[in-house]
Amino acid sequence: MTRTMSQQEIEAFNADGVAVLRGAISDGWVARMNKVIDQQLAAPSKWGNDANPGATTNRHFSDRYQWQQNSEINAYIHESGCAQLAAQAMGSETARFYFDHLLVKEPGTVNPTPWHQDVPYWPFLGSQICSIWLALTPCTVASSAMEFVRGSHLDGKYYMPEAFTGDGDANAGWMNSGDGEKCPDIAANREDYDIIGFDMEPGDAVVFSAWTLHGAGGNASLETRRAAISTRWLGDNAVWHPHPGADPIVTQDHVSVQPGQAPLDDKMFPKVWQA
Length: 275
Ligand SMILES: O=C(O)CCC(=O)C(=O)O
Prior knowledge:
The protein has four helices and 14 strands. It is of the alpha+beta class.
């Protein structure tokens, strides 16, 4: 484990819906996860989403849900300390794992990550749901560091999921069938929102609520890849909530819990940390 959260960081998370954790995860884990990124770029899984396969520039890539088959990601989840950081941020006695998400923008990637809220994409409800986005390369807001609408986790909004890459993406069609109100066009009206972003060094992380609006620009750097691993965590008050528009990787067919119940399914949502 690298470190825990300070009281100030926990207060920032509660007030803003996001906290930046400098030096959250050690260099050793960063190196190991960068190796995983290279491997997945070379051989994406069936859950990969690749805007420009094989390219070394202008390639927006993601892969997810590899923890069951990738021993390195599995080790990261269990041994790096990220579970305890998630539990601390959520104010939860436990941290159960949902999924891992690798997110890459090669130099000169034009695609932004559109503004969105995570929870409508996931089959859960509850205030104690969060992500830890670990920077694996340096990035600034100009080279696709994440940005957040400060305090938006407290708005009581539930925004409809939308495909990031347009309707033509066979791996993303599931996103277009959910409920909720349309996410406002934050990119076109930035001055109306209290937007915060953090320049990151490898090993820095942002921990943010699944209810916080967030996005990222393209990668304007022509030299440096922007790579991150985001891990998704469930706290004590999370409940299973399958619904149209939720990520199809884990559905009612895969779990032993019923809608409205706590996700006490150790096979699908392992309890990685307990106070
Ligand atoms: O890395 C990105 O561009 C987006 C990440 C994100 O939206 C997330 O981790 O929830």
